[in-house]
TrEMBL record:
Gene: Pop4
Pfam families: RNase_P-MRP_p29
Oligomeric form and interacting partners: Component of nuclear RNase P and RNase MRP ribonucleoproteins. RNase P consists of a catalytic RNA moiety and 10 different protein chains; POP1, POP4, POP5, POP7, RPP14, RPP21, RPP25, RPP30, RPP38 and RPP40. Within the RNase P complex, POP1, POP7 and RPP25 form the 'finger' subcomplex, POP5, RPP14, RPP40 and homodimeric RPP30 form the 'palm' subcomplex, and RPP21, POP4 and RPP38 form the 'wrist' subcomplex. All subunits of the RNase P complex interact with the catalytic RNA. Several subunits of RNase P are also part of the RNase MRP complex.
Species lineage: Eukaryota, Metazoa, Chordata, Craniata, Vertebrata
Family, as annotated: Belongs to the eukaryotic/archaeal RNase P protein component 1 family.
Annotated localization: Nucleus, Nucleolus
GO annotation, biological process: rRNA processing; tRNA 5'-leader removal
Protein name: Ribonuclease P protein subunit p29
Length: 200
């Protein structure tokens, strides 16, 4: 059997462990009562952060040649079905491209649309050799378009200082490349100004 002092010390220590958020004065006040209600504090579970899988670096993508198109695949006719899919995609996006549709609404949707498969023409450029290049966009990067021409030649055309035009169902849209230097995935959240000028 414990002595009264030992029993008191044990009870005080037990209550302190059981009620860590209460001060000593509050615990002594509780001891004067006939019944003591112990409190339970559950430990907060620490959430483990999920590690996001790391993608390939730019160097690894170049080494693996992920974005390179093989020479035997560089044929205009191969990508004509892609262009037909793109036209259907734009018609669905613009609700049919009806004659009474507002041009600025269509223009706004085209600026945010995916252009892979679109037929574009370089209409203006600071470099005269780019003017007149027409073909299907195979790849869009932040600063360049990769275009396959009817002559089965793969052209890399910079966006900077170039104006592109694309036509679908009689609607012609102009793209100012200098204002268009974004990745395709970034354009969907970009707000484009309806009016703007560009010096070529």
């Amino acid at each position: 059997p414990q002595r009264p002092e030992e029993a008191r010390a044990f009870v005080n220590a037990f209550l302190k462990r059981s009620m860590p958020k209460k001060k000593d004065e509050a615990i002594q006040d509780i001891l004067t009562r006939k019944a003591v209600v112990l409190e339970h504090y559950s430990k907060k579970k620490t959430k483990q952060k999920r590690k996001k899988p790391k993608g390939f670096t730019a160097k690894q993508r170049r080494e693996m040649r992920l974005f390179e198109i093989e020479p035997e695949q560089q044929r205009y006719t191969i990508f004509l079905p892609l262009h037909e899919l793109w036209k259907q995609y734009i018609r669905d996006l613009c609700h049919g491209l009806k004659p009474d549709a507002q041009p600025h609404m269509i223009q706004g949707k085209l600026l945010k649309a995916d252009l892979h498969g679109a037929i574009v023409t370089v209409t203006k450029s600071k470099c005269p050799s780019y003017v007149g290049i027409t073909g299907i966009i195979l790849q869009e990067f932040k600063h360049v378009f990769k275009i396959i021409t009817k002559e089965d030649k793969l052209k890399v055309v910079p966006k900077l200082n170039n104006v592109f035009s694309l036509e679908i169902d009689g609607f012609i849209s102009y793209i100012y490349g200098s204002k268009f230097q974004l990745r395709a995935s970034e354009r969907s959240a970009k707000k484009f100004k309806l009016k703007g000028t560009i010096d070529l």
